[in-house]
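W.,

You were right to be curious about this one. When I first looked at the sequence I had no strong expectations either way, so I just let the prediction run and decided to look at it fresh. Below is the sequence, 1074 residues in total, followed by the output.
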Amino acid sequence: MPKRTDIHKVLIIGSGPIIIGQACEFDYSGTQACKALRSLGYEIVLVNSNPATIMTDPEMADVTYIEPLNVGRLEQIIAKERPDALLPNLGGQSGLNLCAELAREGILDKYNVKVIGVQVDAIERGEDRIEFKKSMNALGIEMARSEVAYSVEEALDIADSLGYPVVLRPAYTMGGAGGGLVYNKEELKTVCARGLQASLVGQVLVEESILGWEELELEVVRDADNNMITVCFIENIDPLGVHTGDSFCSAPMLTISEECQKELQRQAYKIVESVEVIGGTNVQFAHDPVTDRIVVIEINPRTSRSSALASKATGFPIALVSAMLASGLMLKDIPCGKYGTLDRYVPDGDYVVIKFARWAFEKFKGVEDKLGTQMRAVGEVMSIGKTYKEAFQKAIRSLETGRYGLGFARDYHEKSREELLHMLITPSSDRHFIMYEALRKGASVEEIFDITRVKTYFIEQMKELVEEEEALAASRGSLPSDDKLISAKKNGFSDKYLSQILDIPEDDIRSRRIELGVEEAWEGVHVSGTPDSAYYYSTYNAADKNPVSTDRPKIMILGGGPNRIGQGIEFDYCCVHASLALKKLGFETIIVNCNPETVSTDYDTSDKLYFEPLTLEDVLSIYKKEQPVGVIAQFGGQTPLNLASDLEKNGVKILGTSPSVIDLAEDRDLFREMMDKLGIPMPESGMATTVEEALAIAHEIGYPVMVRPSYVLGGRGMEVVYDDESMSDYMKAAVGVTPDRPILIDRFLNHALECEADAISDGSHAFVPAVMEHIELAGVHSGDSACIIPSVHISPENVQTIKEYTRKIAEEMHVKGLMNMQYAIENGKVYVLEANPRASRTVPLVSKVCNIRMVPLATDIITSELTGRPSPVQDLKEQHIPYYGVKEAVFPFNMFQEVDPVLGPEMRSTGEVLGLSPSYGEAFYKAQEATQSKLPLGGTVLISVNRKDKAEVVEVAKSFAEDGFKILATGNTYELIHDAGIEAAKVKKLYEGRPNILDMITNGDIDLIVNSPVGKDSIHDDSYLRKAAIKAKIPYMTTIAAARVTAKGIRYVREHGRGDVKSLQQLHSEISDI
């Protein structure tokens, strides 16, 4: 059947900002859908609130809207664009939920929009727990015994009849939000109340516990003719009880019998057929290995995190094919070089794929590192090897947690067998590292299986690795025998880890194995639906099957590795753009990366993709094989930069800014010398390696000071310190401080306005498209601060100064490519805070708001020594941008309920959104709306601020009062507001009696909260207020600066109503040259 001709214009809904449970995999699926549908001749309208993605670039769709994802904004867009069809199953849970809401409110019928890919009633059958259960009963497919509750009382009754423990699952949520496993009535009351609130429809499923069973997933693709194929069988190595997003998994299934897999497939096909999804569906099962009972857990009638993994694990591009099938094509209409046509596809790769998650527990003080049914991971890596051991060890070194093997993590090797077994009772992010040390201490496979319920096959494989490691360690201080070395390489031991076990230099190991002819070989993974495309993985267990072309000069781009806080999708955006730009310049492009969720690991982003860890061993092997003319390290964040100087030592040519310049920017003393030479002011600072040095510097500079380790990304370990005691504590707790990696100490600029500038530089000239102004004052990490671009409150003289300083620094440092500068303005004077001579996380933001292709321009400069092209910098002109963009960060505090959601110098946001408008007040309002915390236009505002902010609170209160808000205030804040003649009511703090603020928040009497934290020196902790605001989903501001802009935004929207929506392409056409 040919493609549909009754539709011409298709609306695709993106998934919004990156949050835990919904990450870059939807940028990948949305980008693929745009490619597929445009190649079939459809016009695409794309809506997404996330500026960091490739999909919101103006080239990806015909019309792009960066707008908040809610029914009101979507109706405005549908009314304006009049699409014929809506494709909802590529935008994650957000896309599905919005489609269901648009249908429920009659908006799709009103504008005659057809839903393609998945039917609206199918979303309900898949997502609504009652409907899903009815469908399964009709098909005769077993589910875990369960009942639905709409109140805590109902849930208690159901749990009594099922027997504890029970699992609570709220409807229409994702990442297991709001749910959990409870063992008693008290726990049930707490978790159920949270779940009812998290659910879109106030519905929670109470289910018998099937803890410890095997969790198995199938990825199924179906077309309109009811042809179905299974793309991938995924086995979760962690048993049920750990969310699949946190679970470590393998594909294919390694311990599940052929009969069991056939039975799972039969049931999955029945389910997918009854739900009538066209395209990809993820089906999750639980299997009890003792009784052989199979129950279905849930289905996701959409592309999911697992489908991104399944696509990269098998080479079958699920999202691309799903979009083609949604347009009316059949599987048999899509040709494939390997199978003839896609309806004949079978998963038959002869390799093992491992997925391992990456967490960010260290960023959240007070959070227990334990895993359960609520997802905690912020990213993941995928590795491919010939054997389980090889793939498993490759996954560990892909994670970039400073571990290159399973042993000697933290201090686990110093603990006794009993202590380690006790630690295994609660699943944690380090569980497999603890198992390794327990085996080393003599724990038996059975003991570990009894505690963890991880299948004995996997524990036995791990035990063999421990035994091999112990045998190697016997020859500590010298090279092992050749047989031992060869065997270790075949089992996935990395050169670096071997050097740690044997206590000899990594280079010695590398040169010995090369002498023995033990080198990485590569095999290809065929990409389904293409004649002969493939991407490559390395192995020490097979012959090389990796053809190398020599017709064009090659350039290798190092990717960013796993997604994490501080290094997210923005760096992937830069790598993808660099690859596309290099192709246009006539180079063959090679990308090295190990993140299955991203566009950079899509097979056609580069000419050749290596799905490999970003370590010295792996990158050098590829370099030796491919012989590129150079390597680009400045686009992938900190990951490739940490490798750059070692690569250079091994004879690799690094293109663009040299590694020594990057080191210079990190060395405070050298950088300060350069600033003095240029006459550019910096806050007073020093470097310390001991407590005594640190105290001496602090006394010289004067408290408060900002302290941080060198060479980190995302403000890891940054703090503002106010006194000697805190300083001593910080220095004692600091890990890995050495003379070449000291602690940096700076004077903390009080009440300073922070701003940043991104520049494109060719080594002798630099261009700054716009200066970004942070809404939060200095002391909040730039990745967490809301920011306005172009700036609003910075004087024209200061803007000129910033641009001039940026140019001077770029030229002095000979930066070739991109650079990011951080500044603070204190009492009208501009200070330099830091220089980052690399791509930064604001590159996509500046590119989109200012309509400038920063990465392609930088790529042109970086390669000019090879192409001889003139530098594009001189031709860039200052432009007048007639609108503002406000970036707002999105935080995972709802997943970490025990954390105080206050902002500081350590970055904790997972993603970002963008609000665009000719008024910066409205742009801020839209940015808040896009983070799903819509600002109220009336009602009650609670104001409670600390001593430092008392001076400015009156102006904020006045604005709210003039807009008709009822004002509540506490203690001294109330006195100030009242004395200024503004009407307000006084309310009690938690420790002042009842009814207090907490009661009012809980009862829903408050619509907006302005609360700056009291700080460490107060005897009363006020974090309960901010935690309660998150629980009750009330918008809250923790800085006066944010409160001021909030008041502005509310006033603008009250006076002007909801503004018109404009596409990115339309906004760009309004930019003019100055």
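Here's what jumped out at me. The CA atoms of residues 616 and 643 lie 7 Å apart. And, maybe more interesting for your project: The first strand starts at residue 9 and ends at 13.

Coffee later to discuss?

I.
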